[in-house]
Model the fold of this input.
Amino acid sequence: MSLLSTVLNLLLYKEPPKYDRFELLEDEPEDKDQKENEDAAQPITEIKTKVKSRTGIFKRTQAKPEQEPEQGQNRDGKVTKKLSTNLEIIKNELNFPTNQDVVIREFKIMQKSDAFIVYIDGMVDKTTINDYILRQLMAPNPSKTAGSGKDLIDCLVNNLLSVNQVTRQTEYGQIIKQVLSGLTALFVEDAGECILIESRGFDKRNVSNPLTETIIKGPHEAFIENLRTNITLVRKIIRNKDLVTELLPTGKTDNTICGIMYIKGIVNPKVVRELKRRIVSIDVDQIQGDGTLDQLIEDHPFSLFPQILSTERPDRTAYFLMEGKAAIICDGTPYASVIPVTFFDMFHTSEDYALRWQYGTFLRIVRMIAACIALFLPGMYVALTLYHHEMIPTELLVSLAKAREHLPFPTIIEILLMEISFELIREAGIRVPGVIGQTLGIIGAIILGQAAVTAGLVSPVLIIVISITGLGSFAIPNFSLAFGVRISRFIFIICGAIAGFYGIAAGIFIFGGLACSLKSFGVPYFSPVAPKTTSGHDTIVRMPPWMQKTRPDFINTSDRTRMGKVVRGWVARDEKETDNDNGR
Amino acid sequence: MRKAVITLILILMAMSLTSCYDANEFDDIIHVVAIGIDKGVSDQWRLTIQFPTMKESGGSEQSGSGSGKSQEEYTCVSIDAPSFFAGINMLNTSLPRKLNFMHAQIILFSEELAESGLINEYIAPINRFREIRKTSHVFVVKGKAYDLMKENKPFIGNLLFKSFQLLIKEGAMTGYFPHVTLENFSEGLKSTYHQPIAAIAAVNNGKSFIENGEPSGTEFKTGGEYSAGRIPRTGDNKIEIWGTALFVRDTMVGELDGDETRYLLLARGEFERGFFTIQDPQKPELVISLDIRSSREPEIKVTCDGSKPIIRLNVLLDGDLLAVQSGIDYEKPEHKELLEQAFRQIVKDGIEKLINKCKDLNTDALLFGDYAVKNFLTINDWESYDWNNRFKEADITVNVEFAIRRTGTQAKN
Done:
């Protein structure tokens, strides 16, 4: 009985459960929009405090809460007036002296007031600390009559510390976090607050060439692991006051900072608000780069299609920002994630825009064909050989049949064998240490294929099929989508083996249905094709730049147009004629 | 978890329902190339099928030893059976693989079968059989289909499919035999508009090629007046396709030689191109070769008002001058006109002779009925008119338009 009810439960139609899902709908009237705009630009501190009160950094980071030194004094996490208390708290929080990275230096300001600085060794620039903090503070300075407490702090900030960025902070949570990120904290006797001095100076990689998104024409800069540098790389391209960078804390234990970049006035504020809502709500110990973050904030975690685009190119990020999208850059990862994206964005590269539009369009069509080949060719081959002999030209059929004559395995085993060994070679090629890894992999593939044919394990045609499929999957510019295609390929092989072309057609139908139901931050995945909207001439066919007057409709940007009425002023014709001109 | 397991079971059950039962590997199947049908001796049918043996061909693979003689790549089997399908099953008891007719390209009927009016009985099962393509080619064989198929070997290259496809394609470039598919043929069997035709295939045993003898006289021959199997040639390829078999319904009533076939195709609008050889109008002992193309579809007008149908046929041809043995300047307008006139007359005579032959045999192989039907409003009217029997009374006027477009250039000495 219970089995029956379970089966019925599976088969019968049930109303899908209603839950609130974010959708990016057409904008409401202008005044409300304005309000949302302000919403989006609300000071980040508010959100930060919200997070803290919700999760509590101390609870998580502190190993032994019962060891709190003076009860009641730091319950609220504020800096106390007594220097020795502060020192105790800091030592406790940073596990001093067990943690040998932490450096605490006690000294007397102007040979009078007690003070200490705390920093993490290796994260800071020693010159800054020696020359601009300690030397300034410890020098006797008779001309300045320094008081004590608040007055002294004012005096230090205003007159003595010749460092570019100095902030005052009373919250221990913030202080610890900033110290961990490379700042130096200065505590003064009787002050009740602390001065955070910018002194970051850790080792980082130089900006270098992109590794996965190499192009021929266009800039050759890629992101690196440093958040600040990455943000600067983008800001260098978009020199606009409305380019906003918001920093949000994400990992609750590793205190990873992630930056959200968008252009105020172009981006839809609802998207930014939704993005912030999702990031803020995350409660995990560690964010390993933006790959983890993407998985935590994407709409459909169980889909094979990537719903967030990851790029290592600042120029591409800038292009997306100008289009009205938002970018997330995590500290410690050389990639930016862009939202919202559509399926067709995955086939674009920044080269498309650098090239003339005919060439760019050609490249995109080649990539689309490559994706189709990578997805369907092995499945089609299985379907043809098992079910549809009448579709093969007779000459080919005879040579195929002759080749198959002494092969021991059925076609499906053959193709799975080769597909799996191809994936093996590919994976092994990446894991082999050294630059020769890739070359070795490809040579291995050829030799393995050749040997498999001579040994009578697989037919030569199959090797061709597998190699073309491999080429096709390499030509997909988006790494995540290429993975999706590689996995889906096996599903299509099975579909083809079970029911021939009918099976493949059914597979396409199911995949299409699933893909069309996806949304990336409220934007339907297959827009502007399904649902049909205007796309600003940049889906598969890229029209000449002066015809791409509007931003894509489906992103619902605050500012729809990206060009003036007459784009090319030198063409002495009115706007209407320019529209019809198809370039010559 | 339970849900997942049940879903998995359901999917597996659904899969087992389909269970790939239609799936066949290449090497599970014999792909039949040609089907030959004769009257049987022990039973009604003598079914002959030809298929590749799937043995490695000598040259293409790296066999290394370089065996001089390649093995037989195609083989034939014959069986006497009560029906086509019984024959297939009976054959499969001795053949280790499943017979498949998807790639059968040629269907051969023996002349004996065709003349006895049994084609319909024999073609009906083939027509209904799903595996046989409607685009396969139908031939009537002089003699026995069985004998011809024994001689059917790849002559150039080692693919029989290719040889036949190219041979048939070549037919369009010569006009010596029509291009008839199973679909055309069976449609003709049922049609009230016209009668079916088929190309004739024959074995040429080389007897017409007399190696040593009296040299030919000055008598003019066009080259097209031989009948199938009698062309004076010799060589390895014994099979030739030549001429047309004429039918009245399912009975073969006559045969056209090469020239007559060309005129037939001209009137049907199926002629594409061919080299014609004619006597030089000014020096009859020498010949002129022309490259003839049909410039447009022939214009055919049929009126069925009076007691007998009146048909006007206008054939439009273009030509190039290929060779002039006499060296007369046919480039000059006055000479060119003379040549054009002569060729028009030859074609006109040829078509008229062909029409008379068709009238005598009472078969509208020239597709005039397709134009005549336009005069009738309802199918009943048309069927009661009984075109196929009225054709022989038709009054047919033939007109040929011909112009030499390119005379070719020759440096004057």
Confidence is low (pLDDT under 50) at residues 58-69 of chain B. The interface with chain A takes residues 2-3, 6-7, 10, 15, 18, 20, 22-27, 29, 31, 33, 52, 54-57, 100, 102-103, 105, 133, 159, 161-162 of chain B (CB under 8 Å).
